[in-house]
Amino acid sequence: MMKNINIKTAVVAKALIEKRLFFILLFIFPMLLQAQINPFGDQYLLNDFQLNPAIAGTKRYTPVTLTTRQQWVGFTKAPTTQAISFHSRIRAKNVRFTPRGFINKGERSFGNIGYGGSAFNYSYGAISHTGINLVYAYHIFLGNGRMGFGVAPSVYQFRINKSGFILPDGDEYDPLIHDAVNESIILLDANVGAHYYDEFNYAGLSIIQLLHSTVQFGNFSFISEDRISLNPDLGRAIYMYYGRYFKINPDFVVEPSVYLKANGQNGVSAHVNGLVHYMDMFSAGLSYRLQESAGVLAGVKLDNVEFRYMFEIPFTSKMPNNFTTHQVMVRLFVGQPIE
Question: Whole-angstrom Cα distance, residue 205 to residue 188?
Answer without folding.
Answer: 21
